[in-house]
Amino acid sequence: MAGLTFTTPDGGTTTVPQAAIDALGKALRGKLLLPGADGYDEARTIWNAMIDRRPAAIVACADADDVSRGVTFAREHGLQLAVRSGGHNIAGSAVCDGGLMLSLAGMKAIKVDPAARRARVGPGNTLGDVDKATQEHGLAVPLGINSTTGVAGLTLGGGFGWMSRKHGLTIDSLLSVEVVTASGDKVRASAKEHPDLFWAIRGGGGNFGVVTEFEFALHPIGPEVMAGLIVYPLSDARDVLRYYRDFCTTAPDELTVWAVLRKAPPLPFLPAAVHGTEVLVLATLYAGDMTSGEKALAPLRAFRKPIADVVSPHPYAGFQTAFDPLLTPGARNYWKSHNFLKVTDDLLDTLVAAAGTLPSPHCEIFLAQMGGATNRVPVDATAYPHRDVTFIMNIHGRWETAAEDERCTSWCRQQFDAVAPFATGGAYVNFMPDDEAGRVATTYGANYQRLQAAKKTYDPTNLFRLNQNIRPTTKT
């Protein structure tokens, strides 16, 4: 066999001699997986079932040295390169057709220092892995809301969830990273070491290198928190959402409430007659003591008689898995997202109307309450620029079969367009699908040129381009 044919970054092809392939495989501590090999299909399968791509080869990395070897191999041979950590990104950039894929899924070390309130986390870990390790000490990192999400992708895009109003975005708790750059070099980036790189990776995605370790500051929470769901029929959504919006303006930082419009899943605490009907769900968590949490939530819980109110003490790590059954791997997903500075009556009416046209029982629209600590960081302190946003909306299209693709993606786009007049024009990059490359510059706003400059320094040839791509600056 003369060698393997790979896709190049510009969409062409190139053949790599078999001797070079064999040498790479022998040099790895991990494995080189070729099509047909045990583990190949598992490595290339990611959370979003709409993505079904077949790399020419996969480097299943065991450590940072393997990452460096893989990056160097791709650069020297002119190969398209994809990097998979948790494989949860909606755009599917973790895997490529015909190129070289680096899988970091096996790099799952976690070291917690409870006295210093620090954790070092490998890129293959999920949110659930980190929550389990840190909650043993009553500590946590502000992460997302689905335990199967990869920590690496979440962090590189900014990261937000139940603790963010109290403790900031995930990147606001990031202290340092170990990164393999496009040159294959391993560098440490922090506020004092390669500060331009450290600034860029905090929200700039995977544009600047492959992070092989994250160091986080930890915060006390749990082991139990006041949390849970309040469920209303869609007929009450208009009034409840208006009250919710006003309630959020004076909510303490410890309290986060998200609003979700969807069809009711068959949850055991909901009457059978409600299953499959359109509902409004308020999902709540108070990152503080129980008594204060009950007091803070009391007005919201008393406003209107709900179908169900299951707000009560919950293990923090357990509540972090509460939405896992609605976000399991293997479904087809397409998302559209907007940021908002304020939520008007007209916006709420538009969202309620959209909830009456859901094309699949798995689709939903949610409003994530931001503010608090996330808004107290200067716009230019990190690459993530949306420090004035009060709500982030995600139109979460989710369905089961390819036959539903056109109907469901069209619905997502229609609702996205309908609420665009109320939005800032910016977006959370982790919620952007692969057809939104035209939004990248707008999404980073005033930080975009600085990101381009960092890209030119650390990845001048745009090796890391399978992402919401930031092209290197052309200025001299």
Topology:
Layout: E1 3-7, E2 13-17, H1 18-27, E3 31-33, H2 40-44, E4 57-60, H3 64-77, E5 81-84, E6 100-103, E7 110-113, E8 118-121, H4 127-135, E9 139-140, H5 151-156, H6 164-167, E10 174-180, E11 186-190, H7 195-201, E12 210-217, E13 219-220, E14 224-233, H8 237-248, E15 255-263, E16 278-286, H9 290-302, E17 308-309, E18 312-315, H10 316-319, E19 332-340, H11 345-355, E20 364-369, E21 391-399, H12 405-419, H13 440-444, H14 448-458
Description:
The chain is of the alpha+beta class. The chain has helices at 18-27, 40-44, 64-77, 127-135, 151-156, 164-167, 195-201, 237-248, 290-302, 316-319, 345-355, 405-419, 440-444, 448-458; strands at residues 3-7, 13-17, 31-33, 57-60, 81-84, 100-103, 110-113, 118-121, 139-140, 174-180, 186-190, 210-217, 219-220, 224-233, 255-263, 278-286, 308-309, 312-315, 332-340, 364-369, 391-399. Strands 14, 15, 16, 17, 18, 19, 20 and 21 form an eight-stranded antiparallel β-sheet that branches. A five-stranded antiparallel β-sheet has the order 7-8-12-10-11. Strand 7 (110-113) and strand 8 (118-121) form a beta hairpin. 51% of the residues are buried.
